[in-house]
């Protein structure tokens, strides 16, 4: 496989992003959604992130989107405005090739450049070793596990919480 290009996502990428996420919803435990959102809903979500000034990237090989990552608000209350939550999804055939790591590294750098101070990962399924591993390689620390909080595919699933400081983290107070 060629080296992927990591670039900002556009609305033209949304059909491929929607297909990647649909597979994750239908067959995986990284997301606790049970019904895959359609292109219209994924477009609404994308526009919401863009309107909020959040970064959103795709990995593409020869123009074909094979993965994506974005950061969004961790919580809606204003006190959380310097904290983001990340999401990363890949086509199944591209797992374990370093593409998730490349997407995360670009996302972290962009979030730091935009002045965010903390990044939270809410990882579906404590058995999701690939995602935990990528986040660990990117400097995330384990902050806890919520046991048996999601029911999918007829079984209870955990969520793993990980956190990484961005830029100066909590060492200084931003002026804005």
Keywords:
alpha+beta; 7-stranded mixed beta sheet; 29% helix; Aminopeptidase; 4 helices; 176 residues; globular
What topology does this entry show?
Layout: E1 5-8, H1 14-27, H2 39-51, E2 56-61, E3 64-73, E4 83-90, H3 99-113, E5 118-124, H4 129-137, E6 141-152, E7 155-165
Helix pairs in contact: 1-2
Number of H- or I-type helical stretches = 4
User: What is the count of β-strands?
Assistant: 7
- Secondary-structure element series: EHHEEEHEHEE
Derived structural class: alpha+beta
β-strand amount: 25-35%
CATH class: Alpha Beta
Helix fraction, binned, reads: 25-40%
Number of domains: 1
Largest sheet geometry: 7 strands, mixed
Distance between the termini: 44 Å
Q: Say which CATH homologous superfamily is assigned.
A: Gcn5-related N-acetyltransferase (GNAT)
- Based on the coordinates given, report the CATH architecture: 3-Layer(aba) Sandwich
Order of strands, main sheet, comes to 1-2-3-4-5-7-6
Shape: globular
Taking pLDDT < 50 over at least 5 consecutive residues as the criterion, the unreliable ranges are none
**Rg (C-alpha, Å):** 16 Å
Question: Which topology does CATH recognise?
Answer: Aminopeptidase
Q: What's the rounded overall pLDDT mean?
A: 95
Please give a quick description of this structure.
The protein has a single domain, classed as Aminopeptidase.
Please characterize this protein's 3D structure.
The chain has a 7-stranded mixed sheet, with helices on both faces. The chain has 176 residues and is α+β, with helices and mostly antiparallel strands. It has helices at residues 14-27, 39-51, 99-113, 129-137; strands at residues 5-8, 56-61, 64-73, 83-90, 118-124, 141-152, 155-165. It has one domain: Gcn5-related N-acetyltransferase (GNAT) (Aminopeptidase, 3-Layer(aba) Sandwich), CATH 3.40.630.30. The relative contact order is 0.15. Helix 1 crosses helix 2 (39-51). The mean pLDDT is 95.
């Amino acid at each position: 496989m060629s080296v992927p290009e990591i670039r900002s996502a556009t609305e033209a990428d949304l059909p491929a992003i929607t297909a990647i996420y649909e597979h994750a919803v239908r067959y995986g435990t990284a997301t606790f959604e049970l019904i895959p959102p359609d292109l219209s809903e994924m477009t609404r979500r994308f526009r919401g992130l863009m309107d909020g000034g959040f970064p959103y990237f795709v990995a593409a090989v020869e123009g074909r989107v094979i993965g994506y990552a974005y950061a969004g608000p961790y919580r809606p209350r204003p006190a959380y405005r310097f904290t983001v939550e990340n999401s990363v999804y890949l086509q199944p055939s591209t797992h374990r090739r370093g593409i998730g790591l490349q997407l995360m590294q670009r996302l972290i750098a962009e979030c730091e450049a935009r002045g965010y101070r903390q990044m939270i990962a809410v990882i579906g399924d404590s058995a999701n070793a690939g995602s935990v591993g990528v986040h660990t390689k990117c400097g995330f620390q384990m902050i806890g596990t919520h046991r048996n909080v999601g029911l999918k595919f007829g079984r209870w699933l955990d969520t793993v919480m990980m956190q990484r400081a961005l830029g100066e983290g909590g060492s200084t107070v931003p002026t804005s």
